[in-house]
Write a structure and sequence with these properties.
Layout lengths: L3 E4 L5 H12 L3 E6 L6 H10 L4 E4 L5 H15 L4 E4 L14 H29 L2 E6 L12 H22 L3 E7 L21 H16 L4 H13 L6 E3 L2 H7 L9 H7 L7
Helix pairs in contact: 1-2, 1-7, 3-4, 4-5
Length: 275
């Protein structure tokens, strides 16, 4: 039976290319997006690659809809063997410029949505004794950055959740990992939530935007990032932490000496060892 991969956020960018690459590797890919009317680029990319993609609607912040979708896939396709939590949204603003609702929105899509989907697929994976869960975080999940307070906070949170889960899930044959892209040339930037111009932070924000624009001018292609996502989730080598490019590895290394996550997992594994 063909393994089934569920991947979120596939209407464009690295999620689109990761979905196509996973299908090329022989998986039945259920690719989700909020509006299936935007599926044409994915379908065209799949056709060009000679693969088929199972496109379904999902707003990842709708937890009840996510539960219904997972249940449908379990019945129709026999289970979910791979989950790729890719959907996300950025935010460019510092604390004083953010409303609590904007902070909540960042937590909803970047933290609570992947947590919910992970919870939903765990029972089936545990019962089958195998599964792979990969969450696309960011170098912003390892290095806090100016004017990314809410975004980095949510990405730090989801990395902490997944790292804590990893050694427990491992006991049931389930691999839990994260992958940290740096700048990727995609519509992600266009969807970033930004504050109104002006105010006491205007000069600082201007400098940040100028620097960031330069980084995205030399960004990793979405094709390359998507291929890295697929390669990470399908690798025979297990690592908790992956990066999508050499530049992402260098960036994450500013904060992390433990680049593949094994040091932390090796430290925490004995905490759940039977006496």
């Amino acid at each position: 039976m063909t393994d089934v991969a569920l991947i979120t956020g596939t209407s464009s960018g690295m999620g689109l290319h990761a979905a196509v690459e996973l299908a090329r590797r022989g998986l039945h890919v259920v690719a989700t997006m909020r509006d299936v009317g935007r599926a044409t680029p994915l379908q065209e990319a799949a056709a060009a690659a000679g693969v088929e993609i199972d496109v379904r609607a999902l707003d990842v912040v709708d937890h009840e809809a996510a539960a219904r979708l997972v249940a449908e896939i379990e019945v129709e396709l026999g289970g979910i063997h791979v989950l790729v939590n890719n959907a996300g949204q950025g935010s460019v603003a510092t604390a004083e410029q953010l409303s609590m609702q904007q902070i909540q929105d960042q937590l909803d899509i970047n933290y609570l949505a992947p947590v919910n989907l992970t919870k939903l697929v765990l029972p089936g994976m545990r019962e089958r004794g195998n599964g792979r869960i990969l969450t696309v975080t960011s170098v912003g999940g390892t290095v806090g950055q100016p004017f990314a307070d809410a975004y980095c906070g949510a990405k730090f949170a989801v990395e902490g959740f997944m790292q804590s889960l990893a050694v427990v899930a491992e006991r049931f044959g389930i691999r839990v990992s994260v992958i940290e892209p740096a700048a990727v040339a995609s519509s992600f930037v266009a969807n970033v939530v930004r504050p109104e111009e002006g105010g006491p932070y205007a000069a600082l924000l201007g400098a940040y935007v100028s620097r960031t624009s330069g980084a995205f001018a030399n960004a990793q292609t979405p094709e390359s990032a998507g291929a890295a996502i697929a390669a990470s989730v399908m690798s025979d080598e297990y690592r908790f932490r992956w990066q999508s490019s050499e530049s992402a590895t260098a960036f994450a290394g500013v904060s992390l000496a433990d680049l593949d996550g094994e040091r932390v997992l090796g430290f925490t594994r004995p905490w759940i060892a039977a006496s």
